[in-house]
């Protein structure tokens, strides 16, 4: 895939997963410091990895959330909890993923994620989603 095609594919997948509002905010906030990083994310994270045919986006979302729980990356985790719904994840699946993470990532990580997931669910409820 040509580099420009990879960027376009990445932007399409990024918008599909994260939503236009999130991506538009990111584009609006580009600076000389973060522009190269955002280009890198679009081309490689979204244009290459998230575009690969081997896993469905639903599965990729759940895997990503599990890894972010393990790494204790709250901001990214919250973003991907929201995004998981765009990929067909349900609240019940997210609950089970968090329960499962308690065994492999530890109780504090799972507990923190339960609180974060509740915030996401409350935000979605308030928005009528």
TrEMBL record:
The protein's name: 4-carboxymuconolactone decarboxylase
PANTHER family: 4-CARBOXYMUCONOLACTONE DECARBOXYLASE FAMILY PROTEIN, CARBOXYMUCONOLACTONE DECARBOXYLASE-LIKE DOMAIN-CONTAINING PROTEIN
Pfam family, one: CMD
Alphabetized UniProt keyword annotations: Lyase
Domain Carboxymuconolactone decarboxylase-like: 36-118
Gene label: pcaC
E.C. designation(s): 4.1.1.44
Coiled-coil segments on the chain, per record: none
The keyword Lyase appears for this protein: yes
Broad EC category: lyase
Entry GO MF terms: 4-carboxymuconolactone decarboxylase activity
Signal peptide: none
């Amino acid at each position: 895939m040509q580099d420009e095609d990879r960027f376009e594919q990445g932007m399409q997948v990024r918008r599909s997963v994260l939503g236009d509002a999130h991506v538009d905010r990111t584009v609006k906030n580009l600076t000389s410091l973060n522009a190269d990083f955002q280009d890198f994310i679009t081309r490689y994270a979204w244009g290459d990895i998230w575009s690969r045919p081997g896993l469905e986006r639903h599965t990729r979302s759940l895997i990503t959330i599990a890894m972010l729980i393990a790494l204790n990356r709250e901001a990214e985790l919250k973003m991907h909890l929201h995004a998981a719904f765009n990929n067909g994840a349900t609240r019940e699946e997210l609950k089970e993923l968090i329960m499962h993470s308690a065994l492999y990532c530890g109780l504090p990580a799972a507990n923190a994620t339960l609180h974060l997931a509740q915030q996401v669910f409350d935000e979605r409820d308030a928005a009528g989603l």
